[in-house]
Amino acid sequence: MCGVAGLVNFDRDLGVESVSAVLRMIDAEVHRGPDDWGILLPDFILNDPNLTGLLQSYDRRHIRTYPGAPGRPFAVLGARRLSILDLSVAGRMPMGTADGKVWITYNGEIYNFCELRNELCARGYTFNSGTDTEVILNGYLEWGTDVVTHLRGMFAFGIWDCRTRPALFLAKDRFGIKPLYWIRERGSVIFASEVRSCLASSLVERNCEPRALRGFLTLGSVPTPWTTIRYLYSLPAAHTLSIDDRSYSIPAPRRYWDVPSVSSTRMSLEDSIAKTKALLDDSLRHHLVSDVPLGVFLSGGMDSSIITKLAAKYSASQLTTITASFEDELLSEGKKAAELAANLGTRHINVHLDHRDFTENLDRIVQSMDQPSVDGVNTYFVAKAAYESGLKVVLSGLGGDEIFWGYSHFKRMNYLSILSRPPLRTAAAILGDFANKAGRARLGKLKFLRLDGIIGPYCVLRGLFTPSEVRDLLDCDGPFPLEDLKPQQFTAETFGRLEIELYLQNQLLRDTDVFSMAHSVEVRVPFLDHLLVEHVCSVPGAYKLSRNIQKPLLARSASDGNATASLVSKKGFTLPMHTWLRNTPTVMEVIDKSPLDLRASRKLASEFKAGRSHWSRLWAAFVISASTDQRLLADFASDGQRRKILFLASDLYSSVGGIQAFNRNLARALVEATPSLDLTIISLNDRDTVSDRFVRGRANFIACRGHRFPAAYFGLRAAAETFRMKPDLVIAGHMSFSAIAFFLKLCSGRNWVLVAHGIESWNPKNYQKYLASKAAGVLAVSNYTASRIIAWGVNQRLITRLPNTVDGEVFREIREKRNGPRPVIITTARIDEVYKGISTVIRALAKIKTIYPEVKYRIVGPSRDITPLSKLARTCGVERHVEFVGQLTDSELPLALNSADLFVMPSAGEGFGIVFLEAMACGIPVIAGNKDGSVEALLNGQLGRLVDPNDEGALVTAVLEAIGGGDRHLDSQYVRRRVIDAYGFDRFRNRVSGFLNSLGSWRE
After folding, report:
1. 155 to each of 173, 176, 956, how far by Cα in Å?
2. Which band of pLDDT confidence, cut at 50, 70 and 90, is reported for residue 379?
3. Contacts of residue 651, Cβ cutoff 8 Å, sequence gap at least 6
4. Integer Cα distance of 292 and 406 in angstroms
5. Same domain, 167 and 25
6. 3-state SS string over 125-179?
7. 75: CB partners within 8 A, 6+ apart
8. Which partner for 152 in 112, 122, 496, 575 could form a disulfide, CB atoms 3.0-4.6 Å apart?
9. Both 610 and 656 in a single domain?
10. What is the pLDDT of residues 216-258, one digit of tens each?
11. Helix axes 210-219, 467-474, angle to 10 degrees
12. Residue 793 and residue 859 share a domain
C-alpha cells in the first residue's frame, strides 16, 4: 500500500518547478507510505545547477533517472511506500526495467502475483525483488495495457513508457478500491492518490466543482468522475487511461471490465453454494499473502465474522481482531465480537469509543477525508487502533452487503419498481411533496422520483437531500450530475449494480481508503475478489433473497449449506452519531459559518434538534463547512444573486461547424463565469443529451430533434421553461430565434440578447432587423459582422464583440510531427458551402503541382455531395492530389491538422472562422481570404497570410511561399502564443463575464 504521484508534460521543457511540485505531492502523502519514498527524473536534468540545489538535502539513493532528452515529453514520478511485500530497498519505487525505459509507481496489492511471476519467469523474465510491483512491470512488458486483465487484487498505478513514443498509462482496479485522481492542464497531466496531493503541487487551481457538491448533498458522497476541484477527475473503477503526445488533446478513459449480469445458464442452488464457498475460501487464502502480521476488523455481524473465521482457518500465525464498542447497546456489537474472538483464539482489541473521543478527533477526521463524505468515521477509529497495535494490514468484510444483497432495500424492490413506472411515478413524487411538508421524512423521499431514469428510485433508497433541498443549500439549481444513468427497469439486479458502482465505489471504498491510510494501515476486502463477484452477480436473484435468512447464499456457503443463527443477526458497523452530534456545540457553530445558504442551514439544524432529520444530513452540512475552513474545499459561497439563463440554440453536438463550436464554448463559459447559475439549454437540432464534459451535469439540456415536430416542440418548451424557471436572461443563439425570444419578453418581461454569427446575420429579413434593435444586447462574433448589423440600423451601443475561441489544450502542436518530402495542404469546412473557397484551391493546385509534384490537398468536413468538387479536380488534372477525408471526430481533428504543412481557406463569406484558430493553435501556417471575418481571426494578417479570394494567382504565390519556407508567418510557437492570448478560452470566458456584468441586474 502506497501513495503515488506524477507529472507528465508534453509541451514544455523540464524545469525545477516540475520536480519541486512532485516532491511536494509525495510529502502530502507521507501518511500513505511512511516506510520509504522515491522520485524518478529524466537523466539530463541532473546537469541543471538549480536542480542540484533543490535536491542537495535529499538522499540521492531515493532519486532515480531514466534516459530522457530535452525537447521530448518528460515525466517526473514519485512514490511513498508502506512496505508489506519484500520489506527491503529492492521494493523501492518508482521501479524501472533494466534498460530504464519503462517505470511504474504503484499503490495496492496483487494477490495472484506469485502465479503471474511464475508465468512470466517461464516466458523468460527475471526478477530482482519479491514485490508485486515488479510483476506488474514485467506483465506490462509482456501484455501491454492488457496487463490489467491479468491482475487479481486492488491497484492504482501509473506507468511511464518511453521506449518509442513517450506515453503515460494509468489504471485502476475493478471496484475502485484504490483511488487515483488526474487532471490535464497547460500541457501537463498530473496524477496522485489523493486530491490534496494534486493541490500540493501548486499547479492545480483551487476552483470549486458544483457537480461534486450537488452529488455529495444528493447521495452523501462525491460521484465519480467528479471531485470538488474543477477538471480534476477521479479515474473510474475498472478503467485505464493512456495519454501520449497525440491523445493528450482528448483523453478518454477506457473500461476493461464490467459487473456481469445474471447468467442465462441457470446454475442450481446447490452448485451455486458450493462454488461460492470455493471462491470465498480461495479469495481468503490469497488475501493473506503478506510479509507483515495481519488483523481483521470484527464488528460482530455476518460479513466480518465470516472473514474472521476463514482468516483464522488459513492463517499461519495468530490473528489480531479489532472491534469498536460504545455504551449504546442497540448499536454496539462489542460483546458478540469478543465471544467470537475468544472462540477463535485471536488477539482481540476492543476500542471503547465515547463522545470525548469523537470531539478530540473531529478536526483530524475532517482533514483525513480528502473528499466530503457522510460515512467512514467508524473506519477512522478502528484503523487508528490497528496502527496503535502495530498492524499494517487488516482484513474487512466490506462489500458483503452489496454483492450478497444484505440490505433491507433489496426486499422492497417489487414495490419500488411498480412506483417508478408512469403514471404512478408522478403520483408518488407528488405524495412525497406532501409527506415532506408534513414532516414525514422517510415518505418524503418519494420526491426523488422526479429525477429521470433509474437514479430516481435509487435515490429514494439512498438519497440524502432532495433536488429542491440541494438547490436551497447551494443557492443554485442544476441537473443531477449522473443524469446519463438512463431508463431501464428498476429491479433488485439494477439496484445491486448501482450499489456497486455508486455506493460502494464512491463512499464505502473511498472512505475506507482515506481513513485507514490516514493511520498508515492497509485494508483488504476479500469479498471484492472479482472472480467471486462475477459468480455471485451471475446467479439468480432468488438465491440471494429470503424472508427468514439474511444473505442466504453467503450464510449457506459459510456454514456448509445451513444458515446458523450466529450468522443471521446484523446491526451494521454503526456509531452513535446522532447522540454525539447533538452533544457537540462545535458542530452547530461551524455550520452557522457555513458557505451553504444560511437560512437553509439553520433550518436543517433546527430539524435535527427537533428529531425530524437524520444525523447524516447535519453531518453533511458540517463536513462542507469544516472542509472549507480547512481549505480542503474551495470556497463556493453564493454572491447572493441566483442567476438564471435560458439559452436557445440551433445545435451544439449534432453537427460540426463554427456556430456549433461557439454554442458549446458559450455554454461552458456561462457555467464557469457566472456564480450560482441555473442554465437551461434548448437545442433545436440535437437529438441526445449533452455530451460535453464541461457542461454535462451543469446545465439542464433539452434536445428537440427526436420529436415528431421539432420546431413546434422547441417553441413550446421555450415558453414552458420561461414560465417554469423565470430566467433573468434569454439568449437567442441564432438570428432565426429572435422572434421567439421577443415573444417571451412580451409575455414574461424577461430580457433577451441576440447572438449574431456570420452570413445569416448580414442580410436578415426586415422583421428580424427590427427585433434585433429591441434586444438588450447583441453579441457579434466579429467586427465584420458587427459592422453589417450597424449598417442595417442597430444602435452600436447594443453590440458587443464576442469572437469565437479555441481550446489550446485540445488544439496544440504535436512535437513529433510527420516527416516527409510531400507537402500537405488542408482545409476543414462544410464542403458544400461555396463561399469557403475550396474550388479556388483545387484550381490553384494545378499550378502548385508543377513545383511540388507530390503535393496533397486534404479536404476535411461533412458534405451532402462531393461530386461537383470531384469533377472539378478531374477537370483540373489534380484528382490524385485531392483527398476527401469526410467528417472527423473531436480526437481525430487535431491529429489531422498536425499532419499538414499548411491550412488554406480563401473564403468570401466567413463570419469569423474558428477553423483558422484551430489550425494556428496547432502551429500550422494559415492562408485566408481578405474579404470577410477571416481578417479578424488572423489579427489583420499578423498571424497568417491574407489573399483576395477571387485572385487565384495570389493564392498560388502565397501557397508556394509558405511551402518553400519563405513566408514570414512560420514561427509556429509565436503564432500559437498570439492566438491563445487573443482567442484562448480564458479570454473568451472573461469576455462573456464582462458582457453579462454590463447588463446590470439583467432585468428591466
Report:
1. 5, 8, 58
2. very high
3. 659, 660, 663, 683, 684, 685, 686, 705
4. 32
5. yes
6. CCCCCCCHHHHHHHHHHHHHHHHHHHCCEEEEEEEEECCCCCEEEEEECCCCCCC
7. 6, 7, 8, 9, 40, 42, 66, 103, 160, 162, 166, 168
8. 112
9. no
10. 999 999 999 999 999 999 999 999 999 999 899 999 999 999 9
11. 130
12. no
Q: What is the pLDDT of residues 670-686, one digit of tens each?
A: 999 876 789 999 999 99
- Whether residue 328 contacts residue 358, with contact meaning beta carbons closer than 8 Å, is answered with no
Query: Residue 190: beta bridge partners?
Result: 7, 183
Secondary element (H or E) of residue 827: strand 824-828
Q: Are residues 357 and 461 in the same domain?
A: no
Query: Would residue 277 count as lying in a domain?
Result: yes
Inside any domain, residue 10: yes
Q: What is the pLDDT of residue 1004?
A: 46
Q: What is the CATH number of the domain that holds 292?
A: 3.40.50.620
**Domain at 851, CATH number:** 3.40.50.2000
Within 13 Å, how many C-alpha atoms sit on residue 846's CB side? 12
Beta bridge partners of 103: 96, 160
HEC states along 659-715? HHHHHHHHHHHHHHHCCCEEEEEEECCCCCCCCCCCCCCCEEEEECCCCCCHHHHHH
Establish if 836 belongs to a structural domain.
yes
Q: Which residues are paired to 512 by β-bridges?
A: none
| Spatial CB neighbours of 328, under 8 Å, sequence gap ≥ 6 | 576, 579
- The pLDDT-based confidence of 818 (bands split at 50, 70, 90) is low
Domain total of the chain? 6
What's the grid cell of residue 106? 504503484
Q: Provide the residue type at 300 as one letter.
A: G
| 895-934: pLDDT as tens digits | 999 999 999 999 998 889 999 999 999 999 999 999 988 9
Is residue 435 domain-shared with residue 398, that is, in the same domain? no
**Measured between alpha carbons, how far is 824 from 208 in angstroms, rounded to an integer?**
44
- List Cα–Cα distances, 491 to 414, 424, 495, 500, in angstroms: 7, 16, 6, 14
pLDDT recorded at residue 344: 92
DSSP 384-448: HHHHHTT-SEEE--TTHHHHTT-SGGGGGHHHHHHHTSTTHHHHHHHHHHHHHHTT-HHHHGGGG
Question: In which residue are the cell numbers 459592422 written?
Answer: 787
Is-contact 192 157, C-beta < 8 A? no
Distance CA 499, CA 493 (A): 10
Environment class of 311 (CB within 10 Å of its CB; exposed 0-12, middle 13-18, buried 19+): buried
- Whether residues 191 and 328 share a domain: the answer is no
Q: What is the pLDDT of residue 104?
A: 98
Q: What is the CA radius of gyration of the chain?
A: 31
Cα 903 from Cα 897, distance rounded (Å): 8
Q: What is the pLDDT of residue 484?
A: 58
Q: Is-cis flag, bond preceding 94, omega within 30? A: yes
The predicted structure's pLDDT at residue 271: 96
- DSSP letters, 260-315, are ----SSPPPHHHHHHHHHHHHHHHHHHHT--SS-EEEE--SSHHHHHHHHHHHHH-
**What is the C-alpha to C-alpha distance for residues 431 and 425, in angstroms, rounded to an integer?**
10
Q: In the prediction, which pLDDT does 565 show? A: 41
* Element housing 618 (H / E): helix 615-629
For residue 230, is it within any domain? no
Burial 238-275 (b: 16+ CB within 10 A, else e): bbbbbbbbbbbbbbebeeeeebeeeeeeebebeebbeb
pLDDT tens-digit map of 113-158: 999 999 999 999 999 999 999 999 999 999 999 999 999 999 999 9
Q: How many residues belong to the chain? A: 1004
* Model confidence pLDDT, tens digit, residues 637-662: 655 567 899 999 999 998 888 899 99
Last residue of a domain, one of 489, 510, 541: 489
Q: Which domain holds residue 687?
A: 643-805+989-998
User: In this predicted structure, which of 462-476, 531-545, 811-825 has the lowest mean pLDDT?
Assistant: 811-825
Place of cell 458540517: 622
Name the burial class of residue 29, with classes exposed (0-12), middle (13-18) and buried (19+) by CB atoms within 10 angstroms of its CB: buried
Angstrom distance (rounded) from CA 740 to CA 994: 25
